[in-house]
Design a protein that fits this description.
heterodimer; A: 14 helices; B: mainly alpha; two-stranded antiparallel ribbon; 13 helices; 2 strands; 2% strand
């Protein structure tokens, strides 16, 4: 950090000015699809974050949920009730509220899972790239083996194993953590490979050599000097992985090894609705399914745009 | 070439050993094999004796060696839930999964390649744009949602196709059952195959399109045009042929993921295959089945990777040259 007099004409532009002037913003404003996707993601995130205040009812408060209200169709259909805009599920819970709460659970699991995956991947990638040698080949061999298998299979296996370890505990207390661990351990490889690749390049640059010469400890060099220079591409992987993590969570919950019906995510809601598909109660499965599809599609579109916008070769 | 083959074989063997170690760890330490076999009121001496007969008091290395030896003879222990040998449970369900995987792979190739060629040749036509959009949606939609959608459309609303099971199956030989010889078997296959193959189809379509566009820009295509060959001959005789090498590689590698993703499809359609068995095992923490499934799937993956790599070296002369130079 260089200290500059406040009135210096060479003062660097403020962060806000830099954002307004950047290519990223320009390319964002050029792409209508991306702007729509961004708005959708924003709305869904806000809806999830503030669901306890936005949702008309609390679908998990037994005092306000009545079994007599079960399987009511959406408000615009015959037999609908204006109290329940999107209808109710098999336990009489307002579907609109349940989707908002479910979205919140899905996004919490997705974000925590991706954060765990990124932490593991970045740490191992830095270690592999910076230390090299045996550490490098061990970590990368593990990554190679894991990359051979689809993430969903690994997540299922880890899920089973972790639940075997937690056997005594109450499933409702552990389900969320089991999911986060499964997702975290299934998706770390991509981060590790990316970070390792750029660390290998950075390691031989002068500033790292200088830091080493000064006698800084290796962990400090990795965190303070190498990491800021290799972290860029991770942003794109994070976005695309969030969509994957949400899908993985929904799939595991749908398969009945994720979140229990008492704290449903979007996947759990879909799996509940799937049971009522044949009795004609289409809304229980449709609305959570559409929400999930829109969320994933919008996040994917944002990720695609980010990848292109940050790729200097495509500018 | 021989050195390359040997090196790849050795690598595959190491991967299998690593997977076996994971499977063994699960088998031995996550689920205690003895606790599952005895009742609550079994006397302690009897438990200890059982431990001894099973060899669980021997050094871990010896136990691991025996686990591998047994796995090589396809003995994976006894399922906790069904009290039956795991291998017979898996063997009974293997034909269902393999048939489903085969049909989905066929579907994804037969539909994906023509769609890819079309979107590459008529890039600006409205049909190509629809294909592109559909492929984006197909990649974004989770497999189980596609399955539910198809069931709702074709089973619930239209009532054309069954929504669960394999239909009528015919027994061939001692252990293979097939649904391909009965009408209801074919009908039952349609929806699950499409559900399972859709993701691969969009993948293949995008790959063929990208490769085609790449190949159409190369010099030999320009020369072929200059020679006055007919467009059809250029597109299909020259361009498509050269596109297919990477496509076949990817398709081969995807075969493994198809079998893994079958877990989801089999659940949606209650298809009596290995995936459904594996899922029930995960739900019930039935470790022997999980470990055995892991080993079998890994073997499949590793073999497919090995074969694809070797074939690639055989087919692509450039690769052969670099391998020879090593």
């Amino acid at each position: 950090m260089s200290v500059q007099p406040a009135s210096s004409p060479k003062q660097p532009p403020s962060l806000w000015a830099r954002i307004l002037d950047s290519d990223i913003l320009a390319s964002f404003l050029r792409s209508k699809v991306t702007m729509v996707a961004a708005v959708i993601v924003l709305v869904l995130f806000i809806g999830a974050a503030f669901s306890p205040w936005i949702a008309p009812t609390n679908p998990f408060d037994p005092a306000t949920v009545f079994l007599a209200d079960a399987n009511i169709p959406p408000a615009w259909q015959d037999g609908g009730d204006p109290k329940f805009i999107l209808g109710t599920d098999d336990q009489g819970r307002d579907l609109y509220s349940a989707i908002l709460y479910g979205l919140r659970v899905s996004l919490i699991v997705g974000l925590l899972g991706v954060a765990l995956a990124a932490t593991i991947g970045i740490t191992l990638g830095l270690l592999a790239g910076y230390l090299g040698g045996r550490v490098d080949s061990l970590i990368m061999r593990i990554a190679d083996v894991q990359l051979t298998f689809p993430a969903i299979l690994i997540a299922l296996l880890i899920d089973g194993v972790v639940r075997g370890i937690f056997k005594g505990a109450n499933r409702e207390d552990t389900a969320l953590y089991v999911l986060v661990i499964s997702i975290g351990l299934s998706f770390w490889v991509q981060y590790a490979r990316t970070i390792r690749g750029s660390t290998l390049v950075e390691r031989n640059k002068d500033y790292v050599q200088a830091a080493r010469l000064v006698g800084l400890p290796a962990p400090l060099i990795m965190l303070r000097h190498v990491l800021p220079n290799v972290i860029g591409p991770v942003l794109v992987i994070l976005t695309i992985n969030l969509a994957l993590a949400v899908i993985t969570e929904a799939t595991l919950s749908f398969l009945g090894v994720g979140l229990p019906p008492t704290q449903p995510s979007l996947g759990t809601l879909i799996s509940i609705g799937n049971r009522y598909l044949f009795s004609g109660d289409w809304w229980i499965v449709t609305f959570p399914g559409v929400t999930l599809a829109i969320l994933v599609l919008a996040v994917n579109l944002l990720g695609d745009w980010l990848r292109d916008a940050l790729n200097p070769r495509l500018r | 070439m021989l050195a390359f083959v040997l090196r790849r074989l050795f690598q595959s063997l190491m991967v299998m050993l690593a997977v076996a170690l994971i499977a063994f760890t699960m088998f031995r330490f996550v689920g205690d094999p003895v606790n599952q076999m005895v009742g609550v009121d079994t006397p302690q001496e009897q438990v200890a004796q059982l431990r001894q007969t099973l060899g669980l008091d021997e050094p871990v290395v010896v136990q691991f060696a025996r686990y591998i030896y047994n796995a090589a003879r396809l003995e994976f222990g006894v399922s906790y839930q069904f009290r039956l040998p795991v291998i017979s449970l898996l063997g009974e369900r293997a034909p269902a999964t393999l048939e489903l995987a085969f049909m989905s792979a066929l579907f994804s190739l037969l539909v994906g390649i023509p769609m890819g060629v079309y979107t590459a040749l008529r890039r600006d036509s409205w049909l190509a744009k629809i294909f592109q959009t559909v492929s984006l949606v197909g990649i974004s939609l989770p497999t189980f949602l596609i399955g539910i959608l198809l069931i709702y459309l074709f089973s619930v609303t239209l009532g054309w196709l069954p929504s669960f099971g394999r239909g009528e199956v015919v027994k061939i030989g001692n252990w293979w059952t097939t649904g391909l010889l009965t009408g209801s078997g074919w009908k039952a296959l349609i929806l699950p195959s499409i559900t399972l193959g859709l993701f691969q189809m969009t993948l293949i379509m995008r790959l063929v399109r990208a490769e085609m566009l790449e190949v159409l820009r190369t010099d030999y295509i320009k020369f072929a045009r200059a020679r006055g060959l007919r467009t059809r001959a250029i597109h299909f005789g020259h361009a498509l042929k050269n596109t297919l090498v990477p496509v076949i590689t990817i398709a081969g590698l995807q075969l493994g993921s198809i079998i893994a993703f079958a877990i989801i499809t089999e659940t949606v359609f209650q298809w009596p295959g290995m995936g459904l068995l594996f899922l029930k095992a995960v739900q019930q923490v039935d470790i022997p089945i999980m470990a055995a499934y892991l080993m079998l799937i890994s073997f499949l993956f590793v073999s497919i990777n090995l074969i694809v790599d070797l074939l690639y070296a055989l087919v692509d002369p450039r690769l052969r040259a670099t391998i020879g130079a090593h």
